[in-house]
Amino acid sequence: MKRTIVVVLVALFMAVGSLVIPHNAYAVGFCGGEWEIYCRIKGDRSKTIATTNFTMCWSWKHLECRPCRGGGEWSHFAKWCNENYAGCKNKCWGCSESFGAWSGVLRCVCYDKNGNCHDCPN
Description:
The chain contains 2 helices and 7 strands; from the N terminus they run H-E-E-E-E-H-E-E-E. The protein is α+β, with helices and mostly antiparallel strands.
C-alpha cells in the first residue's frame, strides 16, 4: 500500500511539473506570477520614475524565484527601467517591496544594472 502511494505521488508530481515548466530552467507556477517593481534613481523612494510588473519564474539552478526574462538575472529590473524610461538617465535600480515570509516585516530591496542587491535607502 505504501509503495502504491509513493508511486502515485511521484506520478502526480511529474504530471504537475510538466504543466508548469516552460523549459528546463524555470517553472512559473511556484512564484505567484508577477512582482511589482519600482524604477527608482539609486533606489531612492522619493525618486520613483515608474512602477511596472515583471513575471517571475522558479529557477531550479538558483532554487529561488527570478525574473522570467533577462536570463533570470536580477539586473534585468534595472536594465529594463533604464532602457524604457528616459527619466532614469541610466541611474535607476529596480526595487521590490514585500513582506518577509517568516518575519512579516516590510522589506525593500533594489537591484542595480550589475545585479547587485541593495537595501532601499530611507
